[in-house]
Amino acid sequence: MVVERIQACDETMAKEYDYLLKVLLVGDSDVGKQEILSGLDDGSTESPFCSGSGTAHKTTTILLDGKRVKLQIWDTSGQGRFCTIIRSYSRGAQGIILVYDITNKWSFDGLNRWLKEVEEHAPGVPKVLVGNRLHLAFKRQVAAKQAELYASRNKMACFEISPLCDFNIRESFCELARMALHRNGMERIWRTNKVLSLQELCCRSICRRTNVYTIDSLPLPPSVKSYLRSYALTSSQCLNTVLNNSASIAKNLKCKTTTSYHLKHSVRNGCVIS
Questions:
Q1: Which of 172, 189, 206 represents a domain boundary (last residue)?
Q2: pTM for this one?
Q3: Range of the structural domain that residue 239 is part of
Q4: What is the pLDDT of residues 33-86, one digit of tens each?
Q5: What is stated as this protein's family in its record (predicted)?
Q6: Cα–Cα distance between 66 and 204 in angstroms, integer?
Q7: pLDDT (tens digit, 9 = 90+) per residue, 181-238?
Q8: Nearest-5° angle of CA 155, CA 158, CA 162?
Q9: Non-local CB neighbours of 33 within 8 Å, separated by 6+ positions
């Protein structure tokens, strides 16, 4: 009887998510890493924060292409004396989010130190660059173009977010999760046998009849609007990628056909002249 209950509990726990990823938040102190964590839905039964060792831990679940991805997010303190924490917590990490404050140039300049630390102890792990406090853009000290160039140079995705407005937070975690699953070969598994959830079907139906800019006018709760914005942006990015790839393939085929046609007729003309 006890064994059956344990097995039933194990089956219930196993159905809570499809993939589990460990994510680290790194960056200087006072860049707003706690703000990012506090804005996420907590999926843990225990206390989400344990700051005694200089870290804060929180779990949340996101929906990615019909699969439930559970994220274990660890916030390492930005103070210099906690740099050794990265060495221990980076083991087994599948994703890194580097955070800076767009109103603090010093926090952006310090990214090189954190990037060097991450590359030393977690080489090859997918990374996302996040510029926090977009709602204070009137105090901006780091240009968006500068951050994009830095992210491109270091092969990272780049987002500017605002925990106060709940903007781009879920998008940044979804992109990191997608990169991590793709790196581990998981994307190939779920795309061959993809089952859409009721939530995603509803989002798809709503987004077909509206766009990102009119979602805020819908009579829906703020959390639902945030998820719809995330879904609409992600879907449009995927669609643009497919359309761009199709256009480039069609262009290449057209060029090849035209080239072969000219070569064929040039050979025939050469024979007539001779």
A1: 189
A2: 0.61
A3: 198-250
A4: 988 988 787 655 444 444 444 456 789 998 887 788 999 998 876 555 445 556
A5: Belongs to the small GTPase superfamily. Rab family.
A6: 12
A7: 988 776 554 554 455 567 777 777 887 777 777 888 888 888 788 777 777 776 654 4
A8: 160
A9: 25, 27, 56, 75, 78, 99, 132
If asked whether residues 66 and 143 sit together in one domain, one would say: yes
What's the DSSP call for residue 167?
B
Please tell me whether residue 132 adopts helix, strand or coil conformation: strand
Q: How many domains does the chain have?
A: 2
Cα(124)–Cα(128) distance, rounded to whole angstroms? 12
Terminal CA-to-CA distance of the chain, rounded, Å? 95
Same domain? 117 vs 91: yes
Residue 26 structure tokens = 């790194």
Query: Are 71 and 33 found together in one domain?
Result: yes
Question: Which value, to the nearest 10 degrees, does the dihedral of the CA atoms of residues 59, 162, 121, 148 take?
Answer: 140
Please name which of 61, 146, 57, 39 lies closest in space to residue 93, comparing C-alpha atoms: 57
Give the number of C-alpha atoms closer than 13 A to the C-alpha of residue 117, restricted to the C-beta side.
24
Instruction: Of 23, 73, 10, 18, give the one whose Cα is nearest residue 43.
Output: 73
Which segments of the chain does DSSP mark as H helices, in order? 2-14, 33-38, 83-89, 105-109, 111-121, 144-153, 169-183, 187-192, 198-208, 222-273
Residues 31 and 108 placed together within one structural domain of the fold: yes
Residue bearing tokens 């009137």: 138
